[in-house]
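Hi,

I'm pasting everything inline rather than attaching a file, because the server keeps stripping attachments. The sequence lines come first, and each chain or strand is labelled.
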Amino acid sequence: VPRNELELISWIRSRVAHDPNVVVGIGDDTAVLKTQETLLVTVDMLLEGVHFDLAGCTARDVGQKALNVNLSDIAAMAGRPTVAVVAVGMPNGRPETLADDLFAGLLDAAKPFSVTLAGGDTNSSKLGLVVAVTLLGHPTGSGPVRRSGAKPRDVLCVTGRLGYSLAGRHLHFTPRVTEAQRLHENYRLNAMIDLSDGLGQDLFHLTDASGCGALLDAGAIPIQPSPPGWNDDRPPLDHALYDGEDFELLFAMPEPEAQRLLRDQPLRDLGVAITRIGIITGESAVLLRDDHSTRPLLRTGYTHSW
Amino acid sequence: VPRNELELISWIRSRVAHDPNVVVGIGDDTAVLKTQETLLVTVDMLLEGVHFDLAGCTARDVGQKALNVNLSDIAAMAGRPTVAVVAVGMPNGRPETLADDLFAGLLDAAKPFSVTLAGGDTNSSKLGLVVAVTLLGHPTGSGPVRRSGAKPRDVLCVTGRLGYSLAGRHLHFTPRVTEAQRLHENYRLNAMIDLSDGLGQDLFHLTDASGCGALLDAGAIPIQPSPPGWNDDRPPLDHALYDGEDFELLFAMPEPEAQRLLRDQPLRDLGVAITRIGIITGESAVLLRDDHSTRPLLRTGYTHSW
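And the predicted assembly:
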């Protein structure tokens, strides 16, 4: 069981499959990669006590999530993930399998998307477990789908169902990599983002970037069923808007394209429904309409502050 | 003064200069970059309490170092750095300028090498300050200089002087990016590594990767003068071998090339001497020779364990 950086690096190297595009992988000063002309890059850090608590999940869960949140970002651009590098801070005095479990989780998450772990940095930590994954990828089809391309009268859609992620999906979710590529290949997507902070915040990221507004249809938002035993006073819609960590896709597309897509339901074989939840408007406001009223959407969700 | 992730991202965006190779920078789900066919990638994480202590340095120092250690890795491949992405964990209850200072330091270090900050991830931290920088770059000249190309009878050289980094250079050093490119452009380098863990460990990384050994000439190793007021019982040579964080270059090259290089001293205008410190051998042992004896070099240096 690796307990220092040299042992850990050797343990990981023995578990990484050959990738012809990784000219130099783990074990030199930098990785050397063959890449296409356009590269996608994203990074996410998970910190013990903020993003996870090892009383409530395993190190393997943490490793999986650390890569999956990055895969979700690549998905949001309709990209194809290729290579990851990982920096970790390993705390002392923990179960001796902590490092193996963490990296086993990273490799679990890498496998379905053929992502190669090409390098990293291993440190001891006096601060609890920290893992930062940087993921590279390439665009697919006509190029990266940005947040900024939404146009007035575009239809807003989401994959899957939103809310109640803390019941478990925040740790165990399928990053929508395959789904995003399939959508981008077959339909014209004007803008896309993954829902990590919650629809009530990420929709603003999309409309701000696009210089437009939106009108959400409250009754249309697909909400996860309230988990068994879950009991609180918040309306289910609030969970769907503000819980965050749904890791579903929110995207905007021209009306005729949306009609075709909603009729096709092209992700049905993956068990993923696509739902129309509103439209993009030329105003700057983001509004929520239900049977009784139309009111500004409260802009909130998880924001890190210090 | 930014105190949450949205304010911080906006503060940073306003300070990043335009880079034509950064198609999408800070503010989307991933960065989108124009790149060459061969890409260098490296990542390093600095953790409070392990790599630095904010009683003994500023957050700006930490930001500078966080990028400089990565620049040193790119230098070790004789690469040209291009783009960085940064993940941070920001602790609560600290001076309100902590985030500004950290990023000011990162931008300080980026500027001399025209590195663009293209994205990142900002988090609150219950674990103290954490910063992980991923740096991309391109090879120069005939390609990346690896650790693995040293050959028996190659001459081993180092830039600068080694030891006593804790007196200050561990925080304030010049990553040898320019130096490495100039050497690689004008001389045949068979293998290179940057001295981060100390010569007494990094030399083994180079010989292990190259499948060879080495004979070091103890009297030839250029040692930093002992800092004023510094008082300990360790011989200066031990400081040069084992302190680590020199961030100088160690490289191996054919004898005739080394003779030419040592005569030219091509880094003199940068104030950097190059010194011959030994040779590569066909044995697997790494030996240290002084006036009295030849003995195996103790393989040690800073190793993170947990």
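Chain A touches chain B through 76 residues (CB under 8 Å).

If the labels don't parse on your end, tell me and I'll reformat.
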